[in-house]
């Protein structure tokens, strides 16, 4: 089965930021999002979408790589793989075979803060999905016979995705440098030397502790009403016993960062140099009211696509860059990263790209953004929202990711209004406070012959 | 009371490296070091030294800041302070008052890997010292009334030693960058935001788990024979019950490091810029046979004092540097750091100093050291050894630190022979393998107006 890692490299940050930005405007009555809890603590969210006979069924566990014990990086993701290994009731692979037979699709992914499993099927198959998903919520059976070969799969996955990619390795060391104390410094997939030592016992302990209705969120989006979802959920998930009571998710936090840092990877496989710079900033969950929204709009105005200042100035106007942009990993439980990136075009110099990026950041911090820019950025958000309404899975992901990182349904529903309330001064202040006045970490990816920074 | 932190800044690294190098040659019969265990697991080491009527009495606990739980940095050092707070038998301050009254001295220190307490007194007071020290091994009484004010003392200590010192802050971020996964990345004194949250419960839990005869080493050096020490130790420490059985000290290890990193602190309080560069290298405990000895000699030849290549070339010959040297944090449980450092003199440039340091490292990696240099370096070791024989405390510290980080008494006694066996090729190979071929982290301390690296 395929799993998508929300690693911290730019493509994914951007995709995820886009998904977050893609939140829909307040729902009309027939589209009202509803939420309720089962007696065993499972939160259920229903997002009606009647346009087509399709439902998206997602279960989000409030556990990710940042909840792993020291020395056991990768266990959250390893368990994501193992969740397809069967229960007393269903053999390994049976769930996927059923989905395939009815023409559905499925996926799973692990992030720092959550792990999610989803299927997209016709409404008539929702009950079947719930039965399977509820069954493996606490009924997973892990024998040595299934665990050992799957560990080899994960090791191979790491080799293919990270170890063979200079950018992947640089990204890991950049994160490990930006975060000095917080477990966000560890790669979601885990460090190879720790993956290799994972075993059945560790996976089972992690599963027993974290996989339970009282630590999960069920999101159902699509052609189904809340009453039906409640009835089906009670018949299936309702029978799953509570798991252990878990303490608050209080991870070690960052100390003040007083130094600028660089992380340089030189590799013969690199043909075009590039750089990325990251700052530690608050997330939607850790920010003071309004600040995360201002950072979101700052990322959009500074580097969110082809209309952004970075793209217009570096790629279009001066042409020194082949790419340039910004990203904000907004939906995180704890303080997170705001990043900019760029790569030179042709004979242009990486240092010139870096200086131009710095100048654009300084310009916003010093002079702010125009009302027109802000209005257009908000408009782009609205267009993203409209686009998201076309994406049932996108909506379900937004709700799941934000609910799993400390937001409430009310927070999510109030988000568009909070974004509209952001002023040009708020955006300038966010750039001043979090970018201009704070230490940063810059990663350089250089060809072997490159002179370096 | 005074406590000395083995933090990772250069002065201390160097002092400690010097102490390690200062190990004495194999003892003559009357000076034979003996070791035995009490029934409760306490290891006892006796180092006879009859030259003066003085004994050094040290207890080493095999626990340090690298054994702290995530989010609780500083608890090992906080507990070191709390160890002076009294027991059922002795009020707070009584132990220190007795030492003072008899004209003795005392100290305590916390490192990444161990915590130690010692007194120097006349032989007639050894029993008293043992009684007090055995009493507080498991008998410490910590009430809210004594814990809370001592936390303020520690907070003030951190403020004075680290937060008011740009070099101190840079050193912390350098360590946090060099170590991406291992707990050596955390400061021994703890990060302020975590110190502030330490409490009685955490200190007591740490104490109960780690302070016990089966996790401690008693080192007695001085004017006393092994038979007497055994008899006194059995009367005092022998009555202390075993503590919990502790698992092996397996900390999270470093992933491969594939990037060069820099950490730059710019501060108006800095008048002269300086740099230090660190590599991850094996320690005496983690190295293959002979490699740590080669690294020790490499540090000595490259940068151990005024005869070293760095000093001679940068300070004496070209005169571009006001200081330059190297250090190796040899006695650590896990992989550790090898460092070089330098600061420009007068109008010389930090970049020139850095280039000159790099050239000296490359020279050894490419061309090795001369037999004459190696012989003289070994001679300097021997002279350090002779000097150490004059220092009873120095000897006790060498035994304690090495025994607490995985060495045996036999390892320590065989050390001079292993150093003598190191060849010039071994030193060159160590420079090649661990410095030239490996990623490094460079810290820059710059005046506010400084142009940066």
Model description:
The first copy, chain A, folds into 2 domains: 33-239, Metalloenzyme, LuxS/M16 peptidase-like (Cytochrome Bc1 Complex, Chain A, domain 1); 261-447, Metalloenzyme, LuxS/M16 peptidase-like (Cytochrome Bc1 Complex, Chain A, domain 1). Chain A has 16 helices and 12 strands. Chain A has helices at 10-21, 75-82, 94-101, 126-138, 144-163, 166-178, 192-195, 200-210, 226-236, 291-303, 309-317, 350-367, 371-389, 392-403, 409-420, 424-436, and strands spanning 3-5, 34-37, 43-48, 55-61, 105-110, 115-121, 216-222, 260-267, 274-281, 321-328, 336-344, 441-447. In chain A, the strands form 2 sheets. A 7-stranded mixed sheet of chain A has the order 1-5-6-4-7-3-2, sandwiched between helices. In chain A, strands 8-12-9-11-10 form a 5-stranded mixed sheet. In chain A, a hairpin with a 5-residue loop joins strand 2 (34-37) and strand 3 (43-48). In chain A, helix 11 crosses helix 12 (350-367). The first copy, chain A, is globular, with a radius of gyration of 22 Å. The two termini of chain A are 41 Å apart. The A-B interface holds A 70-71, 73, 169-170, 172-173, 176-177, 180-181, 183, 185-186, 191-194, 250-253, 255-266, 443 and B 70-71, 73, 169-170, 172-173, 176-177, 180-181, 183, 185-186, 191-194, 250-253, 255-266, 443.
């Amino acid at each position: 089965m395929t799993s998508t890692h929300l690693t911290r490299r730019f493509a994914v940050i951007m995709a995820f930021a886009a998904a977050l930005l893609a939140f829909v405007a307040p729902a009309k009555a027939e589209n009202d999002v509803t939420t309720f809890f089962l007696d065993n603590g499972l939160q259920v969210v229903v997002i009606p979408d009647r346009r087509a006979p399709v439902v998206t069924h997602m279960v989000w566990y409030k556990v990710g790589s940042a909840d792993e014990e020291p020395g056991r990086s990768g266990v959250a993701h390893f368990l994501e793989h193992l969740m397809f290994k069967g229960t007393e009731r269903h053999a390994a692979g049976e769930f996927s075979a059923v989905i395939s037979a009815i023409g559905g699709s499925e996926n799973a992914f692990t992030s720092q803060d959550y792990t999610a499993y989803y299927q997209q099927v016709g409404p008539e198959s929702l009950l079947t999905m719930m039965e399977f998903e509820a069954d493996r919520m606490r009924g997973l059976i892990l024998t040595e016979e299934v665990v050992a070969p799957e560990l080899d799969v994960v090791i191979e996955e790491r080799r293919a995705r990270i170890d063979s990619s200079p950018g992947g390795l640089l990204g890991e060391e950049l994160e490990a440098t930006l975060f000095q104390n917080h477990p966000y410094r560890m790669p979601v997939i885990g460090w190879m030397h720790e993956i290799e030592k994972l075993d059945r016992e560790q996976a089972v302990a992690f599963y027993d502790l974290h996989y339970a209705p009282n630590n999960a969120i069920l999101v159902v989006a699509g052609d189904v009403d809340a009453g039906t979802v409640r009835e089906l959920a009670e018949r299936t998930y309702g029978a799953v016993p509570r798991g252990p009571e878990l303490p608050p998710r209080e991870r070690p936090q960052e100390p003040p960062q007083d130094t600028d840092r660089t992380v340089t990877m030189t590799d013969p496989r690199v043909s075009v140099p590039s750089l990325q710079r990251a700052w530690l900033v608050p997330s939607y969950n850790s920010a003071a009211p309004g600040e995360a929204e201002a950072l979101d709009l700052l990322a959009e105005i500074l580097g969110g696509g082809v209309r952004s200042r970075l793209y217009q100035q570096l790629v279009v106007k001066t042409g020194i860059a082949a790419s340039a942009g910004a990203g904000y990993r907004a939906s995180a439980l704890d303080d997170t990263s705001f990043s900019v990136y760029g790569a030179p075009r042709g004979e242009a110099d990486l240092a010139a790209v870096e200086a131009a990026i710095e100048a654009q950041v300084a310009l916003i911090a010093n002079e702010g953004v125009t009302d027109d820019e802000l209005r257009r950025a908000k408009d782009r958000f609205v267009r993203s929202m409209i686009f998201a309404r076309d994406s049932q899975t996108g909506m379900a992901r937004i709700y799941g990711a934000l609910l799993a990182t400390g937001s409430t349904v009310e927070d999510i529903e109030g988000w568009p209004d909070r974004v509209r309330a952001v002023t040009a001064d708020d955006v300038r202040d966010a750039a001043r406070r979090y970018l201009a006045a704070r230490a940063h970490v810059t990663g350089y990816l250089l060809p072997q012959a490159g002179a370096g920074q």
